[in-house]
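To fix ideas, we give here one paired sequence and structure record:
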Amino acid sequence: MIGEDPLGVPSNLMPFISQVAAGKRRELLVYGDNYPTPDGTGLRDYIHVDDLAEGHLAALQYIWAVGSGMLTLNLGSGHPYSVLEMIEAFERNSGKRIPYKIVGRRPGDLPEYFADPSLAKKLLGWTAKCDVNRMCLDAWRWQKTALKNFAS
């Protein structure tokens, strides 16, 4: 029931892909294809918003239980996916082709970064449950619904 549809050019991959699939944008910009990664595109740790919300709730419950006002953890899957893998997953789960264009790297982007959620698992018993297929399916389902609602 929730989704992301930012104004202007999205800075996150999922809303950008969703807007391309919905026809709101002509193509997805892929920033760099010459990183030292398996397919040359950046590797990132994607997390479903439902998992993120559950992680935040688990952290709050932990803080209340131990009486501490601060807790720093990584919430993520611990497994990075490349931009091209995410495009393929979105195409597979939406049935839409995602045209993309490789452009130059953005300053400051690293080849890969991803969370180490081991402390969240140890302290909170939390792990991400939704895989990239579920993320893409839910993002596309929301985007289609949003298009219908905005068109009405």
Helices lie at 13-21, 49-66, 83-94, 118-124, 132-151.
